[in-house]
Amino acid sequence: MTHFWNSQNAGARRSLLVAGGVCVALAMATFVGSGGLAAQRTGRVPPAGAGDQNGPLWTLATPLDDGRQMLLVVDQQARALAIYHVDPTNGTLTLKSTRDISWDMLVEDFNCQDPRPAVLKKMLEMPK
Fold first, then answer.
1. What does the alpha-carbon distance between residue 105 and residue 18 come to, in Å, rounded to a whole number?
2. Are 27 and 36 in contact (CB under 8 A)?
3. End-to-end CA separation in angstroms for the chain
4. 2 lies in a domain?
5. Does residue 1 lie in a domain region?
6. Which of 6-20, 55-69, 91-105 has the lowest mean pLDDT?
7. Residue 35 belongs to domain spanning
8. Structural domain count of the chain
C-alpha cells in the first residue's frame, strides 16, 4: 500500500498544501472583512474608491489545466473583482486582473446571441 506522504506523491501533496493555504487565506480575509479582527487593524486609510472595507467578499477557486488555480475575489459593495493565479509548485499568488464592474452591470446586453433580451421582453409583453 502506497502512503500519501511518500516522495512519489510530492505533486499531489504540494497541491493539497497550496489549496489548504488558499482556504486559510480566504477564511482569514472573510474573518478580517467581517470585523472579527477589528481591534488588530492598523489606522490605514483605504485608497479613494476602494469601497467599504467591511463589505462582504465572494470568492471562487477553480483548478486550471496547467496545475495552477484561479482565485476570483468579488467585492460586492465596491462592485469590483480581482483574479489571481496560485502556483502550487512554489506557492506564489499572482494578481492577473482587476476590474470595477459597476459600468458592466449597466449594459443591457453584450456579446450575447439571439434572441436578445429586448426581443424576449417584447415577446413577453405582447398581448395574447
1. 33
2. no
3. 69
4. no
5. no
6. 6-20
7. 7-44+53-125
8. 1
- Which pairing describes strands 92-100 and 69-75: parallel, antiparallel, or unpaired? unpaired
pLDDT score at 32? 44
For the chain, give the percent of residues with pLDDT over 90.
40
Task: Give me the numbers of helices (H) and strands (E) for the chain, helices first please.
Answer: 2, 4
Q: Check: CB of residue 96 under 8 Å from CB of residue 117.
A: no
What DSSP string describes 62-105? Answer: EE-TTS-EEEEEEETTTTEEEEEEEETTTTEEEEEEEEE-TTGG
Domain assignment present for 74: yes
pTM of the predicted structure, to 2 decimals? 0.50
Place of cell 470585523: 35
Residue 23 lies in a domain: yes
